[in-house]
Fold this protein.
Amino acid sequence: MRLGEPPGIQTGQPLTYYQHLCTRLHESSFPGHEVHIGTIELGASTRVIHVHMKDGVAIILSLLTVEGDALEGVSLTSSPTLIKQTLQEKGHHSSLFDDMLVFYDALTVLHFDDDGSPSFMEWYDPSYWDIASFIEATFPQSSPKQP
């Protein structure tokens, strides 16, 4: 996977775009949030996808991670700290929190389960989000972990 774009799919598209790419895409909206959940075939894996809509286009795409995934060539079986350090050495700056790694330059978030294994990744549409609104939406109230 790449930080700047989800694999094989684009952010910022109308719902019909995702309906053609995804199977069993159904509305799971709640007040104030239009969300569609389904599955998508990416390579040899079927993944759960969440499409967060606003004003008729997808502003956030979330994909479930699967065993064997890598981010910019870094295996997601590595510890969150090692993922952060390795990607930082490649020029991708981020903040590591208890349950997520936030890449503010790429408007991307990697979420972790309680055991530190990756659970899903989110890509925020850069044509909708600016850095300030992205930080406000993603950064938790707690302080980042120190590497």
